[in-house]
Amino acid sequence: MSTDYQQAREALGARLRELRFSCPGGRLTGQQLARRLGWPGSKVSKLENGRQTATPEDLKAWAASTGQPDLYPELAARLAGFESHIRSWRRALANGFKPLHEGLSKEIERTTQMWVWEESVVAGLLQTPEYARHVIQRYSELLGGANDIEAAVRSRVQRQEWLYRSGRKLHVLMWEAALRSLICPPSALAAQLDRLTGMVGMDTVELGIVPFTASVKIVPANGFWVLDDRLVVAEDWHAELWLDDADNIALYSKVWRTLRESAVYGSDAHALINAARRSLNSP
Fold first, then answer.
1. What topology does CATH give the domain 3-85?
2. What's residue 242's pLDDT?
3. What share of the chain is helix, strand, coil (3-state, %, to 5)?
4. Which of 56, 68, 80, 204 has its CA 20 to 30 A from that of 180?
């Protein structure tokens, strides 16, 4: 997770601890507060130590249970502040691409299952080095502030070792646009599609493609990753969002399952990849 985002979570946690210590009726222990809230004691600890992101409802309940409901607007403003801009790409890229890639790699290392949706780019865990290089280069040109492209490519490729470890499973969905977007030269896309062809049927990868012609129940929008039902990483133009609250995880999981209803697998997915490959007219 980006350093500034984590620092903001920890600062909010420290403020929550102050409220627990300064209750009008006397200082509460973590367990006493947990009982008032009807929460497990571990949740109080996680929020105070910045290991879990509070929801607005959490903050409202915390302020009320510590006898200081008038402080809720302050807590809500803190939450809104770091959720809206702290994880901006420009801020994060001031330190280059490599720290960004390494932060996500650490989360992936302790993950056994991932559910991924990509609407216009091949999922990072399936990218060839050349394809990854062009994708990262385009982001660098757009956002500026990072020139360690080769280090980022190496980090992304090393992350793919996860696919070859026992007990891992990648459930990936891509819109057909991901097979055809020329974010790179046709020759690089051709090699990328050849790699995807070889991954259809791989025991650690479940690859589904949503065809252009498929009926969809929701708009195929921005890409996201769900890691072990404990974390969602979603990307937008301005920021990368890390969401670990149950409601958002459930929402993104529902979105993934809904998109899956429109996907094809196996030989049908293979046919879509081959059709995209033929359209490039590459040797």
1. 434 Repressor (Amino-terminal Domain) (1.10.260)
2. 79
3. 60, 10, 30
4. 204
